[in-house]
Amino acid sequence: MKTMTITALCLAMAGAASAQAETVTLKVAHFLPSTSNAQVNIIEPWCEQLRQESNDRIKCQLYPSMQLGGTPAKLADMARNGVADIVWTAPAYSAGKFPRVEALELPFVLPYGGKAGNEIIWNFYEQYAKDDFKGYKVLVVHGDGGMNLHTRGKAVQTLADLKGLKLRASSRTAAKTVEGLGATPVSMPPAQMTEAISKGVVDGALAAWEVVPATKLDEVTQYHSVTPAGQPAFGYTVLAMLMNQRKFDSLPADLQAIIERNSGKVLSERFATAWDKASDAAYVATPAAGRVAIDAKDYSLMQASTADAVQQWIKEADEKGLDGKALVQDVRSLSGLAQ
């Protein structure tokens, strides 16, 4: 009996040691090039930190530019289905699947800047939007720092300047913003907008400064509208790193703990720092002659022109069983824009 007890103990210890020594390679997929700010300055350093803290037991295999196949709209499903272990994506690319976070993408509800926007976005996710992400291990939800107008051939300073323009929009919420401004939205992912502008398919894009170098948007647009200081952004694209929940649950507890402590608010702050640095660099690199200042009066008119887009979204949210008005008020309360 004593021998059997010792044998069982040895087997248990061997099993624990095996679990402790387990290594894992995480497949991480996203939609931008390998040279993008997101990969070089956030995802790669994050993966390296996991590797170091785990003593080489966590490694990442990166798949940029949709190398695992599919389209950006499929990334969230790829994480859920285990085609990828982790994806970095815009929830809005999967139209209708993440309805609550759409409130963050409405026109003129969030401030410009990675740090300012990400703090609000993370707090909104934790308080109001967790139900959007059931079935995922959420590593971070953050923003693109706020979008500006980048145009070819025509500078945009006033609401009237937008009439007749075709503008790329990143999501259906951004499309409603573009419509409210009096232009025609054309939805497409970042990888397609530069070619679309160069061929005249669209006249410009509603896009964040951070994405300008990665997509070479600066090579096909001459004018970049600059908003008045302290005013809210035209709109936002919400972004997220989502992990397959089953993959996370399968990891040993110590590896789970490493991922946990490097995710959430910590990862949001990592994105914010890199985003603000890249956005500032992109702005400075743009010729001053191409920066078109919008004065406060004209910007106020642009804000007013999108009010119907917000009300339309609230109505659609209500039809889905959500309290759209409350969600908008929650965003504005967190951002200090209690309109």
Tell me briefly what this model is.
The protein is 45% helix and 17% strand. With 339 residues, the chain is an alpha/beta fold.
Can you give a write-up of this model?
- By secondary structure, this protein is an alpha/beta fold.
- It has helices at 2-21, 37-53, 75-81, 114-129, 172-180, 190-198, 211-215, 245-250, 253-261, 265-285, 296-305, 307-319, 324-335, and strands spanning 24-30, 58-63, 86-89, 136-143, 147-151, 166-169, 184-187, 204-208, 223-226, 238-244, 291-293.
- The longest helix has 21 residues, at 265-285.
- Strand 1 (24-30), helix 2 (37-53) and strand 2 (58-63) form a beta-alpha-beta unit.
- Residues 7-19 have low confidence and may be disordered.
- The chain contains 13 helices and eleven strands.
- It has a six-stranded mixed sheet with strand order 7-6-8-5-9-11, with helices on one face.
- Helix 4 runs antiparallel to helix 13 (324-335) and helix 5 runs antiparallel to helix 12.
Summarize the helix and strand pattern as letters: HEHEHEHEEEHEHEHEEHHHEHHH
Quaternary organization: single chain
Mean pLDDT: 93
Could you give the order of strands across the largest sheet?
7-6-8-5-9-11
* Radius of gyration, in angstroms, nearest whole number: 22 Å
N-end to C-end Cα span? 75 Å
Count of alpha and pi helical runs: 13
Helix/strand/pairing category: alpha/beta
Report the helical percentage.
40-55%
Largest pleated sheet: 6 strands, mixed
Uncertain regions spanning at least 5 consecutive residues: 7-19
The backbone outline, from C-alpha atoms, is globular
Number of E-state strands:
11
